[in-house]
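Box 4.2: Ligand-aware structure prediction
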Amino acid sequence: MVYEKFWSDNPLIAKNKTEIRKLEKDGLKIFEDIAHYAANGFESIPKEEWDMFKWAGLYLQRPKEAGYWMMRVVIPGGIVTYDQQIALAGIAEDYGRGVYDITTRQAIQFHWLTIEQVPDILNRLERVGMTTAGACGDITRNIIGNALAGIDHDELFDTRDVLYDVFEYFRLNEDYSNLPRKYKMSISANIHNASNAEINCLSFNPATKEMEGKTEVGFHVKVGGGLSSVPMLAEELDLFILPERTVEVAAAITTIFRDFGYREKRHRSRLKFLVADWGPEQFLEKLLEYTGPLPKKGESAVKGWNAGYFYGIHQQKQKGLHYVGVNIPVGRLTPAEVIEFAELAKNYGNGEIRYCNSQNLIIPNVSEEKLEELKRESIFERFPYQPKNFIGYSVSCTGIEYCNLALVETKNRMRSISERLDREMALDVPVRMHMVGCPNNCGQRAIAEIGLQGIKMKNQDKKMVEAFEIYVGGTLQEGGKYNEKLKGKVEAEQLYHVLKELILFFKQTKLPAETFLDF
Ligand code: SF4
């Protein structure tokens, strides 16, 4: 058996079930079986095969035995065309019971799908040049980019081509479809760290360097960031990369992860654990074995952190064109709303929409002449481009509605708490709040000013109830600092009141314009 040779070649890797399964059958091969399973129904899928569907972007939603799937669609850099939005809205409407979620990695998620529907969904996606390959599983995930790439006053250079080159290199590439664990990349030249560099396994970040009497633009590289239950901040390597070498360097780093990353225990398999053990110097030494000599670091172009928020109407770098950054509360839309935005983008812009890792969206390329008319569109009463300070900065993971790992309900709860805070309390600064349903941190609790993490606890009547831990002070400014847990836990029913007290205390004692982070 092929995997027996693998084990003998890799004696340090324990025989764990997931690793054996991945060697017996490459994750991407699941695409070849979908038609068969669709024809024969959910019951025909062996239980051991369920997890393989992740490589096709499919997870079984809660409860697994009911046979409904969640599907994540890859959107490199978060940029979608008009045709793609119409196709996505159609899928959510026809198959996904009207649920359309923007994720914290600029991707889209559907729910309630049956295996019988999947072939048609994949065909519809393919017709508009989209894929679900690599959306989930131990593979290179959706690549985060600057949501303003190509139109951004605050970018060092346009990163779209580089990002697409890297995406194309890894797409359906079986050399990299059996990584030790999920693997997250970002590529951005936005000077405000719009891609959340420090929480990615590998990030390319804007920098300049004097080379042969010329100022070159390119990237600095960070490795080993990641959230989950053991959040770690990425470490910078002493490297400067010209844009044309990005694919080569991304491939080499991913090869190191594939070949040296830990595979013994799933919870210790992310790249961050290897980087933590090796340190950036040893990691760089290994990288240079693959790439040959590379220039050392130049000057970082990063100044501060915008957390992926682009609200308001702003001029683009192209004279006479504007973009509009819009709030989508906790990232959830209906198919009708997706179509409304698509038509708006077509009528006023070039049909394109940009999804943000803050679960919001941007309408780009609006001409000066159309701006006043656009501002009068009624959609902005529901989805404002100048949102209030709580709902505008609230992020939530999927939670117990659909997620098998969730301990509590999140999305609706986060939305209703934030909207109520906005109704009951005026504040002169936004407060970034993130809610997650378990320690896995998909909603990026660790970088929030106020992080809310769901748990279960016994209440006074000894009944098991939903509750939350509260964390404060997360940021990715200046290299980043994850938030810290406050003592105790709060019953979900009391969460709104406790948050209100906390924020009231902040409001009454803060200096003008002082943020919750600086408090
Ligand atoms: Fe599910 Fe936990 Fe991720 Fe939320 S953080 S989507 S509950 S795994």
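In the box above, the bound molecule is iron/sulfur cluster. The chain is about 30% helix and 20% strand.
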